[in-house]
TrEMBL record:
Protein name: small monomeric GTPase
GO molecular function: G protein activity; GTP binding
EC number: 3.6.5.2
InterPro entries: P-loop_NTPase (IPR027417), Ras-related_GTPase (IPR051065), Small_GTP-bd (IPR005225), Small_GTPase (IPR001806)
Amino acid sequence: MSQRRFTNAKIVILGGSAVGKTAFAVRYITKRYIGDYAPNTEMMYTHRLVGSRDDVTLEILDTAFQMPNDILEKHVKWADGFILMYSVTSRVSYQEACKLKETVFQHRGADLPIVLVSNKHDLLTARAVTDDECDNLAGEMDCPRFQISVAEGQDGVNEAMEELLVLIKRQLVKNLTTTPEHVAGLEKKSRLYNMKKAFKKRIVRSRSDTF
């Protein structure tokens, strides 16, 4: 991500097998739903957002479910933000999301842009994960959570991505304001302010003594 302006963002979509990661990415970029994809295939998508205050280029990495730990670690360190997905119809995918959360936190810490996406809410008759479990996982990550159906609508996909971009931009601002250069600049401004304040006090005191 750019160190000065929010011009690009690298996003990794993590989740178990058949949770809808590729469908999510394609739905967001093309506004179309395609249900059949080659399983366990990694894909990189580039998408440009135009028309907001900043033109932002997104690199969206749709990860394969089964990948070596060193590749997963590389992806986690590369990303500016994460979509962590599971399917509400698959308890195994929820358990996998819990494990992936631990991996992300291990390599990046807990203070990072991430959103939890529970997919396939058009299939609630086959529900295997409760709302409380979704809330608990989101609470552990201290992140927003979205319960959506990629198959049935665009809104939930857009809302999840928009929230993630807000978090990424907020993290960028936070990082810029905690760099040594920025802190040194603030300290310099503070010293100058205090010097000016003290100088004004001396002038006022001098005038008072004169009268």
